[in-house]
Specification:
The complex is a heterodimer of chains A (321) and B (273).
Chain A: E1 3-8, H1 14-27, E2 36-41, H2 47-50, E3 58-63, H3 69-80, E4 87-90, H4 94-106, E5 110-120, E6 125-131, E7 136-142, E8 147-151, E9 168-173, E10 183-190, H5 195-199, E11 202-206, H6 213-226, E12 229-232, H7 234-238, E13 259-263, H8 269-275, E14 280-285, H9 291-294, E15 298-301, H10 304-320
Parallel strand pairs in A: 1-2, 1-4, 2-3, 3-9, 4-8, 5-8, 11-12, 11-13, 13-14, 14-15
Antiparallel strand pairs in A: 5-6, 6-7
Chain B: E1 2-6, E2 9-11, E3 36-38, H1 40-59, E4 64-70, H2 76-85, E5 89-94, H3 103-117, E6 122-126, H4 137-145, E7 149-159, E8 163-170, E9 173-179, E10 183-187, H5 200-207, E11 212-215, H6 216-221, E12 232-239, E13 247-249, H7 254-271
Parallel strand pairs in B: 1-4, 1-6, 4-5, 5-11, 6-10, 7-10
Antiparallel strand pairs in B: 2-3, 7-8, 8-9
Helix pairs in contact in B: 2-5, 3-4
The complex binds flavin-adenine dinucleotide (FAD) and adenosine monophosphate.
Flavin-adenine dinucleotide sits between chains A (133, 207-209, 233-235, 247-252, 264-266, 268, 270-271, 274, 284-287, 290, 303-304) and B (40, 128, 130).
Chain lengths: 321, 273
């Protein structure tokens, strides 16, 4: 079964795309010398950097104006339709998740989003992914080639990563391609990245139980006194108490700090998936029955504010000594 | 402008306790008896559409809102509430099939409905829905319609000249596009999108008006040449085990528990950082 990888070189998370796909290839036991990575990019200057960490040695770099799903899809379908691979892998970021499903449809294949693992033989492939909001894991069989998978988010780099000694790249220039006709105007505001959260060693995560924006701002002060980065659950971000780039979970940042202090969150799997790679989890919650209490290493059943105030006081005391 | 919002009523799975999660091969978890809610992303989609329609009245652009769900009659109450909130049409497609893991079939029914109506400018759909966590329906709907699709949408506004301004999250940052419909919009984590509550008066007015129901077989006939095989088939379900040691700290009050937490655990862990 031959495969190709499709990456978005226009995105600042390119390096993550490479490491998560590489880790997935290793854990699925499918390393193929003939496999190719297609990279859409929009900055000639960055071309060399893009070829450094790719998960395969054969590369096809396609220059475009900017990442627009409609443009990328039509180029991709045009390139691949004459002689499709059996399997296409897309990373689990926003671009990969949308491309995999639509590309599969255009090639008459089948798709699955947020795939965690893959097993294959000559004839068919089976994949697992989270279902029931992440409470359960489902195993799926895909029926038609090409199989197009977007990966689950937060697949961490594999320690025994493969060594690729020499990469060979071919280039195409599609930067003349017009902007899709339905777009009258397009502007981009570069995001503050999730890097701070995703690379922090100590993270405080606040949930709906913090109750309002004022308390979020206070939590910000406490987190910085503790020397921790601050993240939040979905309701906190959607209520506008915290910016969206602080969101942790299945649809936000997947973190893997040494310590995660989870305050006033219930620990629903869509959130917990974002913190479960933490080495130690401390939960502070008023409700002993809530899921996070069972899923933590240590739990305190009490009001988060009272506990946090005392913790910051104790840490401050120690710092001053 | 005519806007169709597609939504799904889902079980609130956070209501199930650990021991309720018993699965056996591919048999589904019993969710019939737990509280239902509008899928979170769809709730946002429904509210973003209401926000789009309301100021439009002021600006002179009339927006006509329709809501569509493929569900059993359990969804009628939600459909009536949506009418009470200002959705002019609230339609249910009835199907006997088990569709939680069949996003392709859902997308086909939605596309067939759109083709039949033939006057929608915008389709607003949630990014992902339980129980299947498929994250495919908006994308497949766009493909079936051969319309463009914007994912991770966080805001939708009217723009002069009949255009629409769409804000969405992308890997490179926040992208704002002024677009010419038609288009499929997949709503992601949209701030300030809790669905408003209808007035009691409006609810009463709608209570007796029946919900328009269409059989899936009927709508399917209107959509020949659409693919019919599922593209991914569920074979097995398993419970994900997440339990950690979960030491509960006992103490007389919060400060005392904080002290134990700090001295017995956190202090040492922080020293190792
Ligand atoms: C497709 C999909 C994707 C999703 N993605 C995400 C995601 O990426 N991230 C995410 O977070 N959610 C996500 N969700 C939502 C998720 O399912 C939960 O609804 C959400 O995580 C709940 O947030 P919470 O724990 O903050 O709030 P709640 O569930 O309301 O929990 C609040 C907790 O605070 C406790 N509490 C209240 N007051 C206090 C106090 N004074 N002191 C201590 N504790 C207190 C309560 O006991 C309770 O446990 C997603 C849902 C879906 C359907
Ligand atoms: N039964 C349904 N009826 C109407 N819309 C649906 C249905 N199922 C899914 N959708 C829409 O498709 C989106 C994505 O769902 P899914 O592809 O199942 O993750 C949901 O957020 C809804 O907007």
């Amino acid at each position: 079964m031959n495969y190709k990888v499709v990456l978005n070189g226009c995105s600042p998370n390119f390096s993550n795309q490479c490491s998560s796909v590489s880790a997935f290839l290793i854990s699925s036991n499918i390393l193929d010398r003939e496999a190719q990575t297609l990279i859409f990019y929009n900055n000639s200057a960055a071309k060399l950097k893009l070829t450094a960490e790719t998960p395969t040695s054969l590369l096809h770099l396609i220059e475009i104006n900017n990442y627009e799903a409609e443009t990328v899809l039509s180029i991709l379908a045009e390139l691949e339709k004459p002689n499709p691979a059996d399997l296409y892998l897309f990373p689990g970021d926003y671009a990969g998740s949308e491309l995999a499903v639509r590309f599969a449809y255009r090639l008459g294949g089948s798709s699955l989003a947020a795939v965690e693992s893959l097993q294959m033989d000559q004839h068919q492939i089976k994949c697992t992914k989270g279902v029931y909001n992440g409470y359960l894991q489902g195993t799926f069989k895909l029926s038609k080639k090409p199989y197009c998978l977007s990966l689950a988010r937060g697949i961490l780099p594999n320690r025994d990563s493969q060594v690729i000694e020499k990469r060979e790249a071919v280039y195409s220039d599609r930067s003349e391609e017009r902007q899709p006709a339905y777009i009258v105007k397009r502007t981009v505001e570069k995001a503050e990245s999730l890097d701070e959260l995703e690379s922090a060693k100590f993270v405080v995560a606040g949930g709906r139980g913090i109750k309002n924006k004022d308390n979020y701002l206070k939590l910000q002060t406490s987190a910085s006194l503790l020397g921790a980065a601050l993240g939040v659950s979905r309701p906190v971000a959607l209520n506008g108490w915290a910016p969206l780039n602080k969101l942790i979970g299945a649809s936000g940042a997947i973190i893997n700090p040494e310590i995660c202090l989870a305050l006033a969150v219930s620990g629903s799997p869509a959130f917990f998936g974002g913190i479960e790679k933490s080495r130690k989890i401390i939960a502070i919650n008023t409700d002993p029955q809530t899921a996070i209490v069972n899923n933590a290493d240590v739990a305190v059943i009490d009001d988060y504010k009272a506990v946090l105030d005392e913790l910051t006081r104790l840490i401050g005391e120690d710092k001053n000594h | 402008m005519n806007v169709l919002v597609c939504f799904k009523v889902v079980p609130d799975l956070d209501q199930l306790s650990g021991s309720d999660w018993v699965v056996d091969g591919c048999s589904r978890v019993e969710t019939r008896f737990i509280k239902k809610m509008i899928n979170p992303y769809d709730e946002s989609a429904l509210e973003l559409a209401l926000k789009l329609a309301n100021p439009a009245k002021v600006s002179g652009i009339t927006t006509n809102l329709s809501a569509l769900t493929i569900a059993d009659s359990g969804a009628n109450l939600t459909l009536k509430n949506l009418r009470a909130l200002g959705y002019q049409q609230a339609v249910r497609i009835e199907s006997d099939a088990e569709l939680d893991f069949a996003p392709q079939e859902i997308a086909i029914l939605i596309a067939a409905y759109i083709r039949n109506a033939n006057d929608f400018d915008l389709i607003i759909i949630g990014q992902q829905s339980g129980v299947g966590d498929n994250a495919k329906t908006p994308l497949l709907t766009a493909e079936l319609m051969q319309w463009p699709c914007i994912t991770q949408v966080t805001a939708i506004e009217n723009d002069p000249a009949g255009n629409v301004k769409v804000t969405s999250l992308a890997d490179e940052g926040t992208v704002t596009r002024v677009i010419k419909p038609p288009c499929v919009l997949a709503v992601g984590n949209a701030p300030f999108s809790t669905l408003r509550v209808p007035t009691l008066k409006a609810i009463k007015e709608q209570a007796a008006v029946p919900i328009k129901t269409i059989r899936s077989t009927e709508i399917r006939k209107a959509a020949p040449n659409l693919p019919d095989s599922p593209d991914a088939e569920l074979l097995k379900l398993e419970v994900v085990h997440r339990k950690r040691k979960s030491m509960i700290i006992n103490g007389a009050n919060a400060p005392e528990k904080a002290k134990i937490l700090y001295h017995s655990y956190l202090k040492g862990w922080l020293a190792d950082l």
